[in-house]
Amino acid sequence: MPTSRSCALAPTWHWVREGILAGEQVLAGASDDTTPTLLIQAEEERVVDNRTHDRFCEIRAAAGYPCEGGKPLVIKGAYHEILFEKDAMRSVALNAIVEFFNKPNLSSGNRFA
């Protein structure tokens, strides 16, 4: 049995497979999803494939439901867990999140009403 810390933290093949399948399902349904979406992406991501985020936003835009800003908000220099990054990176993400939730919906005056 491996005793290395990195081995102990590695995902199982089943976990990886389930993650890939879930990502495929999200892309398959992206054109039907009308939920306002802010997608925040780490520039130096090494866990997930940022191209899938880009594709999700492309599908949403083609369906008439673009992601906020039309594409992922890329946090420069950030890795996978953006909210655990340095203050400067984390504050970019948190400010975008607060701004997104405070934005009124043009039809109802409340974005999520």
Automatic annotation (TrEMBL):
Signal peptide: none annotated. InterPro entries: AB_hydrolase_fold, Hydrolase_4. Residues 10-87 form the Serine aminopeptidase S33 domain. SUPFAM superfamilies: alpha/beta-Hydrolases. This is Lysophospholipase L2.
